[in-house]
Design brief:
single chain; 624 residues; Chitobiase, domain 2; 3 domains; 17 strands; 42% helix; globular
Length: 624
């Protein structure tokens, strides 16, 4: 039996992302059983998956069975085809029709749904919008007209799968479905050592890596949903997982560690650019990795080479400059990438420290301008890349790592800042980064708010900058039309604001779980501790009453219970550090028991979505 019609009002539907232009045209359209979905294009078979998704959504949300029919050539006179309930047409963009790549129009009127798209991705995005309408209204839809297309051609998510979580394939497939619904069209899995290179097993032996076969499967799954699965292999800095093994230590800039601006490194971190074996290793990795991806891009990393010039390259860096030494090796990597017919992406932080070298970058390279605080200088850095003719992405973050529960206000500010300045200075892409520094303790749903808002402002900044993200997040990612689930997640991510001291890329209570009690100096006060504990108490009561209306609802409940328990543990450790000696003796036993409980919960929620490799590293980073 079809869903009962929901009461319609003059209010616009809740969409994520909000579309560029939506007009309610008055009245409703009642969908009926036994209609056709007509796929019209030069090659209708290319629309099969899009049609199947439309078919699935009509069945799921309107309880109707509609079959697919193909049409090619001249557009059929569908007004004479009474059996057509949905018409999906792809037409090529031209100067005359004013349509944009990935754009579409969606009309719901009379007794039919009409979709006209510029290209095949546009048709898919129209169906994603339709799915959100069906989710809200069932078989009785508001009559409306939508015109829509994206601001940024590339809109991506980068998920860290090296520090320390490697998701299961089910988790990755589910994530791709979520991202497709948000109109994300690029996915990167940040890799240091978690691809199963056949000739380098010692590097990934304990990491539960992704295999070549799994990448092939994931790539095909992404392609069907118009998501570009971009290979990502760090290739200069962040090579500790390789260089700590005897087989590779000789390639390190500082084989036995060194002093850096980040403090003393006890282990090697960066490849030595002057060693011929370094570029030879990188070439071997690309030879094996890249055939598993259809993408014509490759993110080579090359960020945070903080020990460069502190070891074997010191003499060369002193003579020619560290920036020049860095650029020369970057260009060697670029040559390797070009040999594979790929476009190279690289993190722009190091070259940005040497702005005079930016004009020397090849003009077919893509610089990734990253920064994770709300006030990161995206304007200044984007202007430099833009004026130099270097294509670039802006790369904000979810603000989830080193936080346990997120930093909502910082995330929204950072994501908006990137969109505004990326659009202003001509960025060709927008990549939302989701890191796992220091043990990747935050469960995946903590990042959904950042994914959702970033997807929204990268699709259409004008209509999404002030969107009620808690409401749309609640409905479309957590299955709660009341808005309470989204508000809960929003509020969990703002507990950090109850502490006045600013902690970059972290929250005070997350840092408190990572540091030994004797080293816990965070400039917090007891009043801040009390405020935070009261808010965590309130959030625990809210969580107990929430209804996550999605398939993994019980797991999400468990994950946020862990988040709140871990946050409380961090706050309790801060309270301990502020206590006098007498109180500390009373608190210590209970604090250690609390830590063991948090670790036990951490193990359970980790294994629900992720492989076992990396778990013990993560557990060891939580101090008891």
């Amino acid at each position: 039996m079809p869903n009962q019609p929901k009461k319609l009002s003059s209010h616009l539907p809740v969409l994520l992302p909000e579309v560029r232009n939506l007009q309610l045209t008055g009245g409703v359209v009642r969908l009926s059983q036994g209609r056709l979905i007509l796929l019209h294009a030069t090659h209708p078979a290319n629309l099969l998956f899009t049609g199947q998704e439309a078919q699935r959504f009509v069945s799921q949300y309107a309880s109707l069975t509609w079959h697919l029919q193909a049409s090619e050539g001249k557009s059929p006179a569908i007004e004479h085809l009474a059996e057509v309930g949905m018409f999906i047409s792809v037409m090529q963009p031209s100067a005359d029709n004013g349509h944009h790549e990935q754009g579409y129009s969606l009309d719901i009127s009379g007794d039919r749904i009409d979709i006209k798209a510029t290209d095949e991705p546009g048709a898919f995005y129209a169906v994603m919008t339709l799915a959100q309408l069906l989710r809200q209204y069932g078989s009785t839809l508001p009559a409306l007209h939508i015109d829509d297309y994206p601001d940024f051609p590339a809109r991506g998510i980068m998920l860290d799968v090296s520090r320390d979580k490697v998701p299961t394939m089910k988790t990755l497939f589910d994530l791709v479905d979520i991202l497709a619904g948000l109109k994300i069209n690029e996915l990167q899995l940040y890799t240091e050592h978690t691809f199963a290179y056949r000739h380098h097993p010692v590097v990934w032996a304990t990491a539960s890596p992704l295999t070549g076969e799994e990448i092939l499967q994931l790539d095909a799954y992404c392609q069907a949903r118009y998501i570009n699965l971009v290979p990502n292999q760090n290739s200069f800095g962040h090579m500790r997982r390789w260089l700590t093994h005897d087989e590779y230590r000789h390639l390190a800039e500082a084989p036995n560690g060194c002093d850096t601006r980040w403090g003393h490194f006890a282990e090697p971190f960066t490849l030595c650019p002057g060693d011929p074996g370094s570029i030879k290793l990188i070439g071997e990795l690309y030879d094996e990795l890249l055939p598993h991806f259809t993408s014509r891009m490759l993110n080579v990393g090359c960020d945070e080479t903080v020990d460069l010039g502190a070891g074997r390259s010191k003499e060369d860096c002193d003579a020619r400059g560290t920036g020049r030494v860095y650029l020369d090796f970057l260009l060697k990597i670029y040559d390797q990438v070009r040999q594979h017919g790929r476009t190279m992406q690289f993190w722009g932080d190091i070259i940005m420290q040497h702005p005079e070298l930016v004009p020397e970058l090849p003009k077919d390279i893509i610089a990734l301008e990253w920064g994770y605080e709300f006030d990161h200088p995206f304007a200044e850095h984007s202007a430099l890349f833009g004026s130099s003719g270097v294509p670039f992405y802006v790369c904000p973050g979810t603000s989830s790592w080193n936080t346990l529960g997120g930093r909502t206000d910082n995330a929204l500010g950072n994501l908006l800042n990137a969109a505004q300045n990326g659009l202003k200075y001509g960025a060709v892409g927008y990549l939302i980064t989701d890191w796992g520094d220091n043990g990747h303790h935050q469960p995946l749903p903590v990042s959904y708010l950042g994914y959702a808002y970033g997807a929204a402002v990268s699709w259409c900044l004008e209509t999404n900058r002030d969107t009620d993200i808690a409401r749309s997040l609640s409905l479309h990612l957590f299955g709660d039309p009341s808005g309470k689930a989204g508000r809960f997640v929003y509020d969990v991510g703002n507990v950090y604001r109850l502490f006045n001291t600013r902690t970059h890329n972290a929250t005070a209570y997350a840092l408190a779980t990572l540091r030994p009690l004797d080293d816990l100096v965070l400039n917090c006060t007891l009043n801040e501790v009390k405020r935070a504990l009261r808010e965590i108490d309130r959030l625990e009561r809210v969580l107990a009453r929430l209804n996550f209306g999605v398939g993994d609802s019980k797991l999400i409940q468990q994950e946020f219970k862990f988040v709140l328990d871990a946050m409380r543990y961090g706050v309790d450790r801060i309270a301990y550090s502020l206590s006098d000696e007498r109180k500390r003796k009373e608190q210590l036993t209970g604090l250690r028991a609390e830590g063991r409980r948090v670790i036990s919960e951490h193990r359970k929620v980790w294994l629900a979505r992720n492989r076992s490799g990396g778990l013990e590293d993560s557990v060891q980073s939580i101090k008891i």
